[in-house]
Amino acid sequence: MKRLYTFNAGDVAGLSLLRAELDLAGITYVTRNDGLFSAAGGIPVTECHPEVWVLENEHFDRADRILRDWLTPAKRGKLPWQCPECAEELDAQFESCWNCGASRPG
Ligand SMILES: [Zn+2]
Questions:
Q1: pLDDT (mean) for 66-84
Q2: How many A from CA of 69 to the centre of ligand 1?
Q3: How much is the pLDDT for 77?
Q4: I want to staple 15 with a disulfide (CB 3.0 to 4.6 A). Which of 47, 50, 63, 77 is the partner?
Q5: Could you tell me the distance, in angstroms and rounded to a whole number, from the CA of residue 96 to the centre of ligand 1?
Q6: What is the whole-number distance in angstroms between the Cα of residue 86 and the centre of ligand 1?
């Protein structure tokens, strides 16, 4: 098992986007510090750096290429995204959340 990527603190929206890409590619992975457990543990989400770990080492190179593509802004701009304010799932063409009006994160 290898760590693929560590997100900025609290970037749960980014984490969910990358997870969608890895799911599509059939790569098995686990996430840590994804904010789901911290609520119960009392650790503020803002102090959590979500991590993605690839389970199978032979998948890692492929996952790494997906990550690099995904980190390219043009590529990321074509993906659906999740509102950081209200967690609404939004299609790629929207630049702000129709539900609460929050701007799309960088
Ligand atoms: Zn919203």
A1: 78
A2: 26
A3: 56
A4: 50
A5: 8
A6: 4
Residue 104 has what DSSP assignment?
Answer: P
* Matching residue, tokens 């074509």: 78
Q: Which two tokens stand for residue 14?
A: 């980014």
Structure tokens at 95: 């630049």
Q: How far is the CA of 11 from the centre of ligand 1 (A)?
A: 15
Ligand 1 centre from 88 Cα, in Å? Answer: 5
Pairwise CA distance, residues 64 & 96, whole Å: 29
Residue 42: per-residue pLDDT: 55
Query: Over the Cα atoms of the chain, what is R_g?
Result: 14
- Residue 59 pLDDT > 50: yes
Q: What is the pLDDT of residues 1-40, one digit of tens each?
A: 999 999 887 787 888 889 999 999 999 999 988 765 544 4
Pairing assessment for the beta strands 89-90 and 81-82 based on DSSP bridges: antiparallel
**65 C-alpha vs ligand 1 centroid, how far in Å?**
30
Q: What mean pLDDT is reported for the chain? A: 84
Domains of the chain by residue range: 2-79
